[in-house]
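Narrative progress, year one. The postdoctoral researcher (J.K.) led the effort to move from monomer predictions toward full complexes, under supervision of the PI. The following entry was the first complex the group processed end to end, covering 481 residues in total.
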Amino acid sequence: MCATGPVGGLRHTPGVIGCRCEIAPPTLLLAVAEAGDAEVRDAALRTLLTSAALRARRSTLGPTLRRFGLSPADLAFLPAQAPDTGPENTVYDVAGGDEAALPGRRVRGTTDPPSGDTAVDEAFDGAAATAAFYREEFGRDSVDGRGLDLVSSVHFGQRYDNAFWTGDQMVYGDGGGGVFVAGGLTRALDVVAHELTHGVVQFSAGLEYRGQSGALNESFSDVFGVLVAQRAAGADAAAASWLVGEGTLEPSLGRALRSMIAPGTAYAGDDQPADMDAYADLPVDDDPRNDNGGVHVNSGIPNRAFAEAARSLGGNAWETVGPVWYEVLTRGRLSRVADFEDCAALTVAVAGERYGEGSAEQDAVRGGWEAVKVRLPVDRR
Amino acid sequence: MKVTVVRSGGVAGMVLTVEVDAAELDADAAAQLRGLVDACEFGDGPPSAIADGFGYEVAVERDDGTVERSRFGQGGAPPGAGALASWVIDGPYGHRRAGR
Ligand SMILES: [Zn+2]
């Protein structure tokens, strides 16, 4: 056998690439992995994933990984894909099927012309625009920073009112189920970028999806979701609406999913707080009403801190405050369980490092958090 | 019999509550609802492991006042609970309310 050890340690174990077990057929290895004891299973699985990853691009491994409860992050020990090729962008049609039917039938690849199916082509364009944003603004190679291929599936479920990132791919329902207008989920670039940014968060700070760390996870997705859309529209901080998913809801419900500049005003029943005085102290439990401790509720607070900072500075938010938030998210200083005060302190520190202590940019970031009444470290100037 | 489904989360982060009262249904729809309730296992399923996955609660209040309940995340419904939730949320019979 080639290697042993817990599968959870895969990412920390370099040097398994040259394993001579690569010649074993994948079907045999799968059978061994499923039938063997823990040690045999780990070794067979490690070999299977390593050899399969060398033959195929990592995106095609999703079903195999899911079978063993793993995600692409567990393949971080593999060399990055060739940077000059960029990620493949592929869209599948899951034709009304559910999770078990993913990804579905392949309908458009990277170099293919538009398919004629609006959802397919919007998912394709949205993924391409989001990847281009991260590459051109921040030098990030795809969602994982290592060239992970972009896989999207459209037409999920029946009139399904949701879009989500599974951990290795994008999934879009058609909407039309009473909350979203039909076609709204793929049409909105900020919604597409919000979901792909959940992938970026997964592969960077890994913010736990509950309580304040979960609200920060949601907020980073909203921040970069709207920045992708603002850049595509050429909208600076003053011109931008700071709405997330504008026009995607049934008009009787409201105009958008969230307002970053005025949380709580996007739709009838929007209960996002605009500052810490109105913080929703919801329990982290299995009651769906509590939203994992209010991850989609209290995200309004860091959302507004960002929008206020960007507005007070002016210019293009993706070039002013955006890089500060990106650095905080991706450079290893934000913990998985960070709270609002941790994030606020880091953004002020990074703004100082990037633009200078006492710079207009740092003052704007500080002012954003002050507006939402998140406590900051004492300003020693 | 009343069936209430709460669905939360998703990218919208909206809480949707839909209630169906069997007493308001025609005979065919009432029979469909009873069949779905009879086929539903009322344990809890795993919560959604993904960001923006839906969370669900399905509660059935019988005419004798007893209540059975199931909570689960998107993709983790106990047998029968997903079909019942879809029938209530997506069908034409429910009273819908947005908000926590
Ligand atoms: Zn989200």
